[in-house]
Amino acid sequence: MHAEAGLSTGDLEEADVKRALSTRAAETIVLASAEKLNAASPYVIALLSQVSGIIVEAETPEEIVADFRRLGITVTRAS
Questions:
Q1: Domain membership flag for residue 2
Q2: pTM over the 0.85 mark
């Protein structure tokens, strides 16, 4: 999940499946560990404008999620 590149993966088939699910969902919520935030891979799943929120680990530093908050994405910290 990257602020400019959006949601992506290194596997083409996985991207196709996740893209299909996301486009048909009422909203897209992403569960992401800190190492997946601000990272981009070759195959795009969705733009961040299609993401309603992300769930991150409680200890994820604020500077890692700040760009997503600025884009209007709700950030929820798991407890």
A1: no
A2: yes
Cα Rg of the chain (Å, integer): 12
pLDDT tens digit sequence for 23-58:
999 999 999 999 999 999 999 999 999 999 999 999
Q: Which residues contact 68 (CB under 8 A, 6 or more apart)?
A: 1, 3, 37, 48, 54, 75
User: How would you class 40 by CB atoms within 10 Å of its CB: exposed for 0-12, middle for 13-18, buried for 19 or more?
Assistant: middle
How many domains in the chain? 1
Q: Is residue 33 part of a domain?
A: yes
